[in-house]
Amino acid sequence: MKPRFLPLIALALCLVVPGQRKESDVTLYSRIGGYDVIAAITDGYLKGVRGDPSFARFAGRGTDSLKRARQFLKDQLCAMTGGSCVYVGRDMKTVRGGLGITEAEWAASMKHMSAALEAVPIKSKERAEFLAMVDALKGDFVE
Ligand code: HEM
After folding, report:
1. CA-CA distance, 62 to 56, in Å (whole number)?
2. Which pLDDT score is estimated for 61?
3. Into how many domains does the chain fold?
């Protein structure tokens, strides 16, 4: 074989033989199963907080506002986990302004997020990663 063909063969091999993908290269979004799973987590979480009397002081919004917040939460979780969604809602510091969210309310919210994650068929590694990702937002919420 003529040596001048070698670069061409190397290029062809690169294109045909896919590189081994490390698990860490795959987004959390893909690893948990994508948008439907994000939607199920969102609904589980919102069902939990909206049914919890300790969150009663945050209630009292109309159906359309609740639907809007649900869509924003789905988009945000989708974007945060590496999905191809774009979050166009307000940033969390702006949203929490004046709400005076306490440590105890944050802990209760995390409990509902954890329960929502337990209810979907994802591995414990991804569950822990998801919870840590949400808990990292704490500083934007708790005053
Ligand atoms: C103690 C926990 C939490 C409380 C009390 C809380 C409370 C609220 C309230 C009252 C609103 C409506 C604000 C308004 O319409 O003016 C809201 C909106 C929202 N929250 Fe939370 N939240 C909590 C945790 C979270 C978490 C953990 C996330 C995300 C991971 C989140 C994401 C959002 C989003 C995306 C919106 C809609 C933003 C927008 O309207 O532009 N919240 N939250």
Report:
1. 14
2. 87
3. 1
- DSSP 3-state assignment of 28? helix
Question: Domain range for residue 64?
Answer: 30-141
114 lines ligand 1 (CB under 6 A): no
The two three-digit tokens of residue 117, written as one number: 């994650």
Any atom of ligand 1 within 6 Å of the Cβ of 80? no
**How is residue 35 written in tokens?**
């948008």
Is the residue at 2 inside a domain? no
Residue 34, CA distances (Å) to 30, 38, 39, 55, 112 in order: 5, 6, 9, 29, 20
- What's 58's domain CATH number? 1.10.490.10
**pTM of the predicted protein model:** 0.86
**The total number of residues written for the chain in this structure:** 143
Buried b / exposed e across 16-25, counting CB within 10 Å, b at 16+?
eeeeeeeeee
Q: Which of 43, 85, 86, 95 to mutate to test the pocket of ligand 1 (most atoms within 8 A of CB)?
A: 95
Tens digits of per-residue pLDDT, 63-108? 999 999 999 999 999 999 999 999 999 999 999 999 999 999 999 9
Residue type at 67 in one-letter notation: K
Using an 8 Å Cβ cutoff, are 119 and 44 in contact? yes
